[in-house]
Amino acid sequence: MKLGEYLKKMRGGAAGPARVGLEEVFWSWFGAFLGIAVVAIFHFRLLSGSGLVMLIGSFGASAVLIYGAVASPLAQPRNLLGGHFLSGLIGVAAGQLIPDPWLAAAMAVATAIAVMQLTKTLHPPGGATALIAVIGGPDIRGLGYLYPLIPALSGAILMLLVALIVNNIPKSRKYPLFWW
To answer: By residue range, what is the domain housing residue 72?
Structure first.
């Protein structure tokens, strides 16, 4: 491929997405608020002082998908749960096996993407879950192989429960589209 053809691909050309209506915005906001609130309550009220962590940054990105893009294949339960759990495992392994943090971070994210693709669990926030396992503070790193379960999987389960309730209230939404 010539350089001009290669660069031409970067121009895009398709029309952008349509604006969503106010009702859709409300349900996305409401679901995200409740989902993150439930996980945050566990984090700040129930686990405070226990050494355990429930709230991680990648859950913010998951909220965008499971409450704001409910029809996306990347937002379905298999992807949400499998993506966070598998990426958590990979991130912890990379952080423990590779002493150089820049290499561990790159290996964790790249391997998480590959494993999620191979297992049909691709969930973009999973890449962040893997990265957090490597670059997270002492509380996160101290969890070791508990991290894929608490917070990665358990927090995702709480958010999924909220998504199942909230996303099926309006007639315009149906969630999930598939489980497995």
So the answer is: 24-44+55-166
Task: Name the domain count of the chain.
Answer: 1
User: For residue range 60-74, what is the model confidence (pLDDT) as tens digits?
Assistant: 999 999 999 999 999
Phi/psi at 17 (5° precision): -70, 155
What's the predicted TM-score (pTM) here?
0.93
Contact 129, 152 (CB under 8 A): yes
Tell me, yes or no, whether 15 lies in a domain.
no
In a domain, 180, yes or no: no
Residue 12 lies in a domain: no
